[in-house]
Amino acid sequence: MKKDVLIIGGGIVGLCSAYFLHKEGHKVTVFDKSDITSGASFVNAGYITPSHIVPLASPGMISKGIKWMFNPASPFYMKPRWDTDFFKWSWYFHKSSTKEKVAKAIPLIKEINLISRELYSSIKNSGDLGDFQLERKGLLMLYKTDKEGEHEMQVAKKASFLGLEVSSLNKKELDTLQPNVTMNVKGAIHYECDGHTTPTEFMKKMLEYLKRIGVIIKTNEEVIDLSTENGRIIKVTTNKNDYSPEEVVLAAGSWSDNLSKKLKIKLPIQAGKGYRINVPRPTGITIPAILMEAKVAVTPMTEYTRFAGTMEFSGINNIIRKQRVEAIAKAASGFYPDIQISKAEKADAKSGLRPVTPDGLPYIGKSSSLKNLTIATGHAMMGWSLGPVSGKLVSEIISDKKTSMDIYGFSPNRRF
């Protein structure tokens, strides 16, 4: 049955939802308060990562956050501030950071990532978007110290047990695999199961495709209120107009919490800011990597090599903190001695806000209080990786179809 669907949010999750909903025959309108050229969907590392099986909410992360709280250059930074929502979220995060909860989350994260990886391939093979970068070279976890290497080896063993392709490389093997770049490391764990893309390329082509097939894209139009009646959203008010859709998809990323409050829905989310530096010159890097001690991601994209990283909890803002940009640049030269990021490249750094849930799992599913609301947000660092599968699941939910996987663990109605 064809439905009139309004999607709030034009990031990777919102656009992929529009893509699959249109395939199901629905009339789709996407709203975004920006012009859809910036934000987390444009500045991420472009990873498709079945290997990222351990959620952010894991044992030891809170203590690390407290340890790094007063160091604005640290990889995981929580800016000291009086914010009751942040205090509640931090408590829920603490409660979620147990071995038992992580163990339950791991198979869910693996399954949803594998489905999304195949959907990326399906989108490319369909020809809908034309050609775009989609490579399967894996992901190198580069380490300088035995401590980091041994820590990642424990994750690798779990990944291997779950059937993911992974191998351990010493320095000689690493140099053979990637011969045209000097690396100051001891070795690497190679997750061969992973892939990568160029986000700016994919987003632009997806947007063009959606417009071409008749999806209505309303940019620079912000949803400012939602009205409900008898357990349904009956009106969506923007800064320009009022709308009365049959179905609503909340995919507003870090802004989802603010909108959910208007609906009296508890949806704990904190914005985790990440940064990127693009280096538009040859670097010799051909395989994506994470610089483990620095927690910096490196991706060879279509027109540049991207260095991205940090998780900064400082509220919703677009402030570029120079200390954090410098930390990424320093990590790049520390692991790749021949690469020095220039002042101009650092000056061009951008940031994006990733929506982080207390347990590190996204919210995907129907609201229990509003019959015509589907929620798809809170993907944290897996937003890019999980864009297609989130969109597919949204389309299945709204089309009353059996979902591609059991999504109970992602329920937006779960309690912490």
Description:
The protein is α/β, with parallel strands linked by helices and 416 residues long. The protein has a single domain, classed as FAD/NAD(P)-binding domain (3-Layer(bba) Sandwich), CATH 3.50.50. Helices cover 35% and strands 24% of the residues. Strands 4, 6, 7, 8, 15, 16, 17, 18 and 19 form a nine-stranded mixed β-sheet that branches. Helix 1 packs parallel to helix 12. The chain is globular, with a radius of gyration of 21 Å. The two termini are 35 Å apart. The model has no long low-confidence stretch (mean pLDDT 95).
Percent of residues in helices: 25-40%
What is the CATH C level class, in words? Alpha Beta
Give the tally of structural domains.
1
| CATH level-3 fold name | FAD/NAD(P)-binding domain
Tally of separate helices: 12
Average residue-wise pLDDT: 95
Helix/sheet category = alpha/beta
Number of DSSP strands? 21
Rg (C-alpha, Å):
21 Å
Q: In what range is the share of β-strand residues?
A: 15-25%
Shape: globular
* Poorly predicted sequence stretches spanning 5 or more consecutive residues: none
Secondary structure elements and pairings:
Blueprint: E1 4-8, H1 12-23, E2 27-31, H2 40-43, E3 47-48, H3 61-68, E4 76-78, H4 84-96, H5 99-126, E5 134-135, E6 139-143, H6 146-161, E7 166-170, H7 171-177, E8 187-191, E9 195-197, H8 199-212, E10 216-218, E11 223-229, E12 232-238, E13 242-243, E14 247-250, H9 256-262, E15 270-279, E16 289-291, E17 296-300, E18 305-313, H10 322-335, H11 343-347, E19 350-356, E20 363-366, E21 373-377, H12 383-398
